[in-house]
Amino acid sequence: MDKIVIQGARRLKGEVEISGAKNATLPIMAAALLTDEVSRIEGVPRLRDVQTMIRLLRVLGAKVDFSNGALEIKPSRTLKTVAPYHLVSTMRASFCVLGPLLARLGRADISLPGGCVIGARPIDLHLKGLASLGASITIEHGFVKARANRGLKGEDIYLGGKFGSSVLATANVLMAATLAKGVTYIENAACEPELVDLADFLVKMGAKIQGQGSHLIEIRGVQKLHGAKHRVITDRIEAGTFMVAGAMQKSNDITIRNCNPEHNHALLDKLQEAGIRVRRTKSTVRISRHGKLEPVDVTTLPYPGFPTDLQAQLMALASVTPGISVITEKIYPDRFMHVSELNRMGANIFLEGSSAIVHGKSRLSGAPVMASDLRASAALVLAGLAAEDKTEVHRVYHLDRGYENIEEKLLKLGADIKRERE
Ligand code: EPU
């Protein structure tokens, strides 16, 4: 296993290029199963989660070629319909093959995704939505078994849960409904940009979809979809992580290229409130920090609210911002594994229910820390960049699930960072 070693307190300056969005790529790869024709997906990041999805598509009977950032996917006419535990359990997004397999082949046996370190991650909304389309669903021996022998039928579906909308449940139902008979309405649909990108890909495949990006999506079922070519949007969470990196220390000045600032509105607003200078064009954001920062209060919410996937990174920033910041997690109330690790670096954070009360300081001190999940790992790297002396982030394989070449990108910005074998 690798670790990342950082000598902190180096000024970051220069430009960084953002990669394609992981959370757009993964459902789009699943959507390619809705046809037996070839689809080409461009701008795909080289990440462990993408490799896992490639393995799953191959197990299901698709030919997949991945070179120069482009995926070519050619599903066979008669796909296998069983998604095994050893793949689904390592990556929740693989549960997204359920909708396409059910819609195209009338059956799917998908391993339950299982627990997750960021807290409970139920699948009731996925199942509710697909059952509304006429699938019969049972759970046996750790597998979701879905059947639609006579095909799926359009329906008016309310897809809201305890914590609001669900990104991947909306994706699953959206994909299944493209081949259902009649019209489907998804109410309380998720509006995340990655879902809009999925819908755009489906439309290129011949699907009839309206309302993507709003809480009401209308899907008119068609008999058949065809292969399509698509370039995925850029990764707003990676972009946001670099925006926070730029804010972590005085006199940092970095330009984030190949991003869509609109997708990071909530974060940029908070950074400005904290005292960061933000200059943006259509596809770049320049972050520079001069004076002292002010603490900020943040609550995570579905898009366009502040994303849960940037909560840990913002907490790293709050840890080095003198004053009290309150960070409340409304999507995954237990997503706080980074708190104890940030405290090992000298931060002063305590939890009160689903809120973290952060007593910010002017400096953290480098320490060995343990990454527990993807975004927590990113937060520890950010903290290490701003901390005095050496930080070692262990178990970095989490980071490789979602950040393409993160050390190279940070090195180019002037960080003192390297990867070492444990
Ligand atoms: N929920 C339910 N029932 C369901 C599904 C979800 O109650 O059937 C709840 C969840 O427990 C949570 C809330 O709904 O409280 C929202 O979860 P959502 O379903 O939207 O999460 P997801 O679709 O499984 C995606 C991203 C996550 C990101 C969340 C929230 C992908 C591959 N994953 O997960 O990304 O945190 O949306 O924005 O798109 C990450 O990239 O690090 C990551 C975890």
Structure report:
The chain is an alpha/beta fold and 422 residues long. The chain has 2 domains: 2-18 and 234-421, UDP-n-acetylglucosamine1-carboxyvinyl-transferase, Chain (Alpha-beta prism), CATH 3.65.10; 22-221, Alpha-beta prism (UDP-n-acetylglucosamine1-carboxyvinyl-transferase, Chain), CATH 3.65.10. The protein contains 14 helices and 24 strands. The chain has helices at residues 22-31, 48-60, 85-88, 98-105, 124-132, 167-177, 193-204, 236-247, 265-274, 311-319, 338-344, 374-386, 397-400, 406-412, and strands at residues 2-7, 13-17, 39-42, 62-67, 70-75, 82-83, 107-111, 136-140, 143-147, 156-158, 183-187, 208-210, 216-220, 229-231, 253-257, 277-280, 284-288, 298-299, 323-328, 349-352, 355-360, 368-370, 390-394, 416-421. The strands form 6 sheets. The protein has a 4-stranded mixed sheet, covered by helices on one side. The longest helix has 13 residues, at 48-60. The mean pLDDT is 96. The structure holds uridine-diphosphate-2(N-acetylglucosaminyl) butyric acid. Uridine-diphosphate-2(N-acetylglucosaminyl) butyric acid (EPU) binds at residues 23, 26, 92-93, 121-126, 161-163, 166-169, 190, 194, 308-309, 331-332, 374-375, 402.
Structural class: alpha/beta
Number of helices: 14
Q: What spatial form do the alpha-carbon principal axes imply? A: elongated
Report the uncertain regions: none
CATH class type of the largest domain:
Alpha Beta
CATH fold category name of the largest domain: UDP-n-acetylglucosamine1-carboxyvinyl-transferase, Chain
Tell me the number of structural domains: 2
* Biggest sheet, spatial arrangement of strands: 22-23-1-24
Distance between the termini: 6 Å
The amount of beta strand, in percent, is: 25-35%
Bound molecules: uridine-diphosphate-2(N-acetylglucosaminyl) butyric acid
